């Protein structure tokens, strides 16, 4: 057997992250190690920030541990993938000028009206593929123009993955998937949409050209190399945005297969060869962003484990000490669909000191059974995610003019079979679950591609297909869920 090569994937979601060591033996890849780390947005005097310094430190600690464990000279390269929002503003000397705002920060509420007085929602959509939300790049930049003392001093802007890539390599570069998910680029020409940014009165001189992912940009910065104990590790410009990053690890995707990437956010969508934008998809709130290798994905952002993770804190505050596995086991014994929230109701977007109460309030206000115990809240959320997934399927089918035949569930949601089973039962579609670390695997596959060891995305998908096993979680309870879907979509509409 050929000696294994190691590739380190930095995979940061918006509320927790991990460094994953992926070993490649020339035929298959395997997860050789995973080091999770925790962080959360920091709220100070009403402003919400991304704690990028803490994230960077965690990356450095874990990176060093991997070098120590594997030995100097065994790690080929490192690449960074993050959630697809937020950016850092940098000054003349290349330093970060201020704390990075988090997309859930509320300052953009104040500039929303101004935003839409300058640009219509449809212009934004057809110009960038983006659906407006308070944390979208142009929306945040407009708020920065109004309120931030560093806006005028900014020399360049990097999306979150670009910020970490820069810190690790000294190279200020952003990949095209990151620029696209931030809502700054034109889908057709894949350049910054300067005309649209100018309409919003925004600066366009702070945008450096972005590059396609999949190339080596040099070695890690000397200071990084000295700290981790290996200066020879290469830095790859990886797929910055986490959802597109995962797709080269997922085989069998086509326009009849809906993918569901479940993490902090639940993203339900399709991978396509051409950008798919039309009025129906716009009305359904489906955005289209660039993926690697000239592909696209159209999907809806649904608040996913964000709500669950916030509720977990509520359980602890109330003195319950349960793991996710405990909750899943207890929730299985409960009747399905006793109550359900709409995960994308605006009340769940912003952080709450007590998300569990927010879920209960929503149920109370909509005349539903109010979940009291943690496992009841857990069950309510799993059922809610499944109903939201079905809603995506139905509305996306209309927008794309296609019928879905199967679902592929990947990332963190694979750890919860109840979730996959409920989505399948609720949608009436077969569901395969697998690749818990799909984003990290896709990130490492891009590094393998950059190293010249995979020649195309097809080869990357084949390699991943040989390496990971899928689980069939297909469940059939269509009549019951048809009734529940009709009931809850009505309840949600009325809220
Ligand atoms: C800002 C959101 O997290 C972004 O829209 C979403 O698409 C994402 O990147 C999820 O990881």
TrEMBL record:
The UniProt record lists the keyword Transferase: yes
Keyword set, alphabetical order: ATP-binding, Kinase, Nucleotide-binding, Rhamnose metabolism, Transferase
Pfam family, one: FGGY_N
SUPFAM superfamilies listed in its UniProt record: Actin-like ATPase domain
InterPro entries membership: ATPase_NBD, FGGY_C, FGGY_Carb_Kinase, FGGY_N, Rhamnulokinase
PANTHER family in the cross-refs: SUGAR KINASE, XYLULOSE KINASE
Biological processes, Gene Ontology terms: rhamnose catabolic process
Family, similarity comment: Belongs to the FGGY kinase family.
Limits of the Carbohydrate kinase FGGY N-terminal domain: 8-246
Domain Carbohydrate kinase FGGY C-terminal, first and last residues per copy: 259-451
Protein's recorded name: Rhamnulokinase
Domain of life: Bacteria
Species of origin: Lientehia hominis
Molecular function per GO: ATP binding; rhamnulokinase activity
């Amino acid at each position: 057997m050929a000696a294994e090569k190691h590739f380190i994937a930095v995979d940061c979601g918006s509320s927790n992250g991990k460094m994953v060591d992926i070993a490649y033996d020339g035929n298959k890849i395997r997860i050789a190690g995973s080091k999770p780390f925790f962080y959360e947005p920091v709220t100070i005097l009403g402003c919400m920030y991304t704690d990028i310094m803490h994230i960077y430190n965690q990356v450095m600690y874990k990176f060093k541990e991997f070098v120590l464990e594997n030995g100097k000279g065994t790690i080929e390269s490192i690449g960074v993938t993050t959630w697809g929002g937020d950016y850092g503003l940098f000054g003349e000397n290349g330093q970060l000028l201020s704390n990075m705002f988090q997309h859930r920060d509320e300052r953009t509420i104040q500039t929303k009206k101004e935003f839409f007085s300058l640009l219509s929602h449809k212009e934004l959509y057809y110009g960038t593929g983006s659906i407006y939300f308070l944390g979208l790049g142009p929306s945040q930049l407009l708020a920065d123009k109004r309120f931030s003392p560093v806006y005028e001093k900014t020399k360049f802007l990097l999306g979150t993955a670009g910020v970490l890539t820069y810190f690790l390599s000294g190279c200020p570069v952003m990949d095209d998937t990151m620029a696209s998910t931030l809502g700054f680029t034109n889908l057709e020409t894949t350049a910054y949409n300067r005309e649209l940014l100018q309409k919003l009165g925004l600066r366009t001189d702070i945008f450096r050209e972005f590059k396609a992912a999949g190339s080596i940009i040099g070695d890690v910065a000397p200071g990084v190399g000295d700290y981790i104990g290996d200066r020879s590790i290469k830095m790859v410009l990886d797929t910055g945005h986490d959802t597109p990053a995962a797709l080269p690890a997922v085989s069998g995707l086509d326009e009849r297969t809906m993918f569901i990437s479940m993490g902090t956010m639940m993203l339900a969508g399709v991978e396509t060869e051409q950008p798919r934008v039309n009025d129906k998809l716009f009305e359904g709130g489906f955005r289209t962003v660039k993926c690697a290798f000239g592909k696209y994905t159209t999907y809806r952002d649904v608040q996913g484990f964000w709500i669950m993770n916030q509720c977990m804190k509520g359980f602890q505050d109330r003195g319950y000490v349960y793991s996710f596995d405990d909750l899943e086991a207890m929730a299985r014994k409960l009747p399905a669909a006793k109550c359900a929230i709409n995960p994308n109701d605006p009340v769940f977007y912003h952080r709450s000191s007590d998300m569990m109460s927010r879920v209960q309030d929503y149920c109370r206000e909509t005349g539903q059974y109010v979940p009291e115990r943690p496992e009841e809240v857990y069950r309510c959320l799993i059922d809610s995610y499944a109903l939201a997934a079905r809603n995506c399927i139905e509305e996306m089918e209309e927008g794309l003019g296609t019928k879905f035949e199967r679902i592929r569930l990947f990332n963190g949601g694979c750890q919860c079979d109840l979730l996959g089973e409920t989505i399948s039962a609720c949608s009436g579609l077969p569901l395969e679950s697998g690749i818990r670390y799909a984003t990290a695997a896709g990130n490492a596959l891009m590094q393998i591609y950059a190293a010249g060891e995979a020649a195309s995305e097809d080869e990357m998908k084949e390699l991943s297909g040989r390496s990971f096993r899928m689980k069939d979680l297909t469940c059939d309870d269509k009549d019951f869920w048809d009734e529940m879907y009709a009931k809850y979509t009505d309840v949600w509409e009325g809220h």
